[in-house]
Amino acid sequence: MNNRAIGFFDSGLGGLTCIPNLLTQLPNESVIYFGDTARTPYGSKAVSTIKHYANQIADFLYTKDVKMMVIACNTITATCLSDLQTRFPEIPIVGIINPAARKIAQICDENSRIGVIATKVTIASDDYNREIKRINPNLQVFSKAAPAFVPLIEEGIIDNEIMDLTIKYYLDDFVRENEIDTLVLGCTHYPIIRKNISRLYPQLRIVNPSYEIIARIKEILKNEDLLAEEKEGENVFYASDLSENFINMIQKILETEKSDLILKFKNLDL
Predict the structure, then answer these.
(1) CA-based Rg of the chain, rounded to a whole angstrom?
(2) Distance (Å, rounded) from C-alpha 262 to C-alpha 122?
(3) Distance (Å, rounded) from C-alpha 14 to C-alpha 239?
């Protein structure tokens, strides 16, 4: 048993979509979250820049004595997971792509038409296609970069015509031409617009990696005897730019009041 916090991090607020599922399924666990809101989005940056930023964030979480790090970001997972696991061999570091790939392989067969939408860097890495086919080589996977989603979501432009038009811009032809029946939200920001996507494309089965990663976290904590025995610490949310948008989105995603949150600013732009 281990009551230390789990460290989550993301390029911005997208990784917050993992937290409600974690707190529901593992209510004794505490979270330290870091969102790099000052430097988001990562999805169109050079890989060397992403690795530099990810190392800074991981170093910071390590100073907080977390018992596990969760890369709640597909872009960082695709570019930095193995490097970070080598950098911190003494604690488990979990990426978000493999748990989603395992779920896809479980629910899909060779007749499925799987679409993955993500940032430019995640799509260019081909990690989803490679990981899914490593588990089941017979699956058909199609990929599409949708870079405009993240900045719109970070600005809170969600429940309106602008977001709907952007979704249709990226998905109309992609879904129709590839006959997609299963859509993977390959960026942790994208579950925030899941309702929009479901409304516009009700025929799609949607896979949410932000949800699927929790089973993997639980599995590792149990196997390594790291499950918290009781709720001891508080959930703390750090941001490199503690903007009003970030605060509003935390409240929306976690369905809580600002007064109930521990919010802290941390500048990592070294």
Answers:
(1) 18
(2) 31
(3) 12
Long-range contacts of 172-178 (CB under 8 A, 24+ apart): 174/115, 174/117, 174/142, 174/144, 175/115, 175/201, 175/204, 178/113, 178/115, 178/142
Where does 179-236 have alpha helices with state H?
194-200, 209-223
DSSP code of 141? E
pTM, to two decimals: 0.93
Catalytic residue among 18, 73, 80, 108: 73
Establish whether 73 is a catalytic residue: yes
User: Cα dihedral angle (179, 182, 184, 190), rounded to 10 degrees?
Assistant: 90
From the candidates 18, 80, 108, 187, which is the catalytic residue?
A: 187
- Confidence class for position 245, pLDDT limits 50, 70, 90: confident
Is 108 marked active-site? no
